[in-house]
Model the fold of this input.
Amino acid sequence: MSELAVNKRAYFDYEILGTYWAGIVLFGFEVKAAKKGMVNLTGSYVVIRGEKAWLLNATISPYQAGNTPKDYDPMRSRKLLLKKAELSELIGFSSKQGLTLVPLRLYNKRNLVKVLIGVGKHKKKHDKRETIKKRDTEREVQRTLKN
Done:
């Protein structure tokens, strides 16, 4: 499995409680662009509408600007492919207060593009400060061990 895109901001803003794999419906030129790494997941999220999951605000830039359709929207809503049991679990999580569905990574798995969805709880400001402190102390430890 090769990693196509990572949503680093999601790991900083949310405490991830669980993850799910989902397929994603893309056009052919979007698949080519995704495999080239022309994807941005920052600020994107997953919404359940009816009995279907949708990925919103994910940007997939055109693979070749001259060959894409004129009415192409890089930030269009994209349908996610999930099993019924997984979808019902995600509906339960999204209905709970304070839980959000966030795309974490975009993968290439056996020539199919997959999305790793995380169920996250938004971090408070002091939690983010703790994350920054932990990261800084780990860097200092690695520097001292290296020298």
